[in-house]
Amino acid sequence: FEDLIMVCVLWRRPDLVPDEVKEARASRMEEAVLVAHSITVLNLLSHAVGRTKKFDIQALVRMPKNFKEWSVGDAQYQRRIHHKRSTQNASKEISSWMLVNQPKRAVYLIEVADPSLFNLQSFEMKGMFPDPQNAILSFMKRAKDHRILCRFLDEGHTYLGYVLADFKECSFQSWETIAADLDTFLEPNPDARPAPEEILLSMKTLKVQRSFEKTDPRMVIGSVQDLQAFRQIWDSKSEEAQAHASFLRAKGLESKYQVRLNLGAPRNRIGLEAWPYPGLPPCYDCVLEVLGFVAF
Fold first, then answer.
1. Alpha-carbon distance 292 to 47, whole Å?
2. Which of 21, 111, 152, 244 fits a 20 to 30 Å CA distance from 205?
3. Spatial distance between the Cα atoms of 39 and 217, rounded to a whole number of angstroms
4. Would you call 177 exposed, middle or buried from its count of C-beta atoms within 10 A (0-12, 13-18, 19+)?
5. Mean pLDDT of 79-95
6. Could you give the CA distance from residue 262 to residue 260 in angstroms, rounded to a whole number?
7. CA–CA distance, 154 with 66 (Å, rounded to integer)
8. pLDDT the model gives residue 198
9. How far apart are CA 22 and CA 258, in angstroms?
10. 286 membership: H or E segment, kind and range
11. pLDDT tens digit string along 112-158?
12. Within 10 A of 3 (CB to CB), how many other CB atoms are there?
């Protein structure tokens, strides 16, 4: 390599270069070699940064795609989509008044490495007939004095595993319960006064999948769009689903009903962290399954 640099600097046969010119150039040879090495290192780092950004962008583009593919195969989420479409009308559209006056409540999720260490309580409560609507009521009542153990369901967030959420300070005032054929939904009422609270979920994670999380590990998961309760059916044959069912049976939490937190994009993004890729929309679609309750 240094011989090549020598030829590039001398640009012709050394025996044809006068001795005085050689002596004048000798003092610059070390600097020329150092600059050449520096350019090589610079090109290497530039290529590495470009490759990392390419992987980041590919991951961000795949997230909505993976979520859509997962949701197509999930019957409960498809029923939610059908419910949203059937109830969508002019009176349910979010008004500008709601965007301005809607209070925000931040809920920070805590990663749980081993959920079996917690003494969990199930949805069933004495004096309550087991149905999806009472599962929603049980959630609202227990959320006032319990932490909630959840797990991520959709493929884009399953690597985050289990989390604890504290909804003690959250208010579900101005949220309404809507009963469908097989599900019961708890969702904000845009026509209510005062405006329903927007609940933003975020967390700090060490399970890095994208490079920007290395500098700011706090990640906004999304805004709670609604709660969905339905009858639990253990019909999945996958090993993960069977292991999860075994875990619930071991903890005595094999409830007849399941409650999900369906997340989406925040309605008002003022005050959120700056998105590192302004050319790409962030993916906030996410589904959390409620497993049980942990007393404070």
1. 47
2. 244
3. 33
4. middle
5. 71
6. 6
7. 8
8. 86
9. 83
10. strand 286-295
11. 888 878 777 776 655 455 678 888 888 888 888 889 999 998 887 88
12. 7
Q: Does pLDDT of 172 surpass 80?
A: yes
Looking at residue 130, its pLDDT comes to 61
Report how far residue 48's alpha carbon sits from residue 157's, in angstroms, rounded to the nearest whole number.
Answer: 26
Cβ-proximal residues to 268 (8 Å cutoff; 6+ apart), any chain = 99, 102, 104, 198
Q: How far is CA 187 from CA 2, 87, 236, 238, 246, in A?
A: 70, 12, 28, 31, 31
Residue 194: cis peptide before it, omega within 30 degrees of 0: yes
Highest-pLDDT range among 70-74, 157-161, 188-192, 228-232: 70-74
Q: Are 223 and 200 in contact (CB under 8 A)?
A: yes
Query: What distance in Å separates the CA atoms of residue 131 and residue 260, rounded to the nearest whole number?
Result: 15
Return the exposure string of 85-113: e unless at least 16 CB atoms fall within 10 Å of the residue's CB, then b: eeeeeeeeeeeeebeeebeeeebebeebe
Q: How far apart are CA 228 and CA 175, in angstroms?
A: 13
Query: Can you tell me which residue has the tokens 């300070």?
Result: 169
Q: Cα(242)–Cα(236) distance, rounded to whole angstroms?
A: 7
Alpha carbon of residue 189 to chain centroid: 25
- Model confidence at 283: pLDDT above 80: no
d(CA 65, CA 219): 20
Write the DSSP assignment of 146-198 as a string of letters.
EEEEEEE-STTTGGG-EEEE--TT---TTEEEEE-SSEEEEEE-TT-SSPPPE
pLDDT tier at 214 (50, 70, 90 boundaries)? very low
Q: Report DSSP state, residue 252.
A: T
Backbone angles phi, psi at 292, to 5 degrees: 175, -175
